[in-house]
Amino acid sequence: MPKRVTPQEAAELMQAGWTYLDVRSIPEFEQGHPAGAANVPLMHQAAGRMVANGDFQKVVSLNFPRDAKLVVGCKSGGRSMQAVGVLAGLGYENLVDVRGGFGGERDGMGRLTAAGWAEAGLPVATQAEAGRAYADLQGNK
After folding, report:
1. Are 107 and 113 in contact (CB under 8 A)?
2. Residue ranges per domain, the chain?
3. How far apart are CA 80 and CA 86, in angstroms?
4. pLDDT value, residue 140
5. What CATH architecture does domain 3-138 belong to?
6. What is the rounded distance in angstroms from the CA atom of residue 44 to the CA atom of residue 23?
7. Integer CA distances (angstroms), 17 to 30, 33, 70, 124, in order
8. Strand blocks (E) in the chain
9. 32, 77, 110, 131: least buried by Cβ within 10 Å?
10. Catalytic positions, please?
11. Model confidence over 106-121: pLDDT tens digits?
């Protein structure tokens, strides 16, 4: 089981030099993301549903060395847990998963059980920093 951190702990890791890897889809990332995050979607939105991004492993590998320190987040924690498993399988060791992701973790009744990045009042951006958008990271092929 990967180490899970709160959004506040993730922000502290970023201050210490870790990279926030947002694995949400491009439209989700563009609506708002942790300031400074890089976007490599685990899945893409297509025809109203989510489909696997066949280039996920390749794009991450080309942009982040195996010893990179990555804080992995998504919307609520599901996709990031999957992504951490995939990356660990590729030999990445410095991985943490953000519990609650960007939008928060909710129970079956829709009640918030773990605050996400946005609810925690942490810095949010709608524009990717240079070289952090998926289109930029794909271009490093």
Report:
1. yes
2. 3-138
3. 10
4. 63
5. 3-Layer(aba) Sandwich (3.40)
6. 10
7. 23, 18, 9, 18
8. 3-5, 19-22, 33-34, 38-39, 43-46, 49-52, 70-73, 95-98, 105-106, 112-114, 124-125
9. 110
10. 74
11. 999 989 999 999 989 9
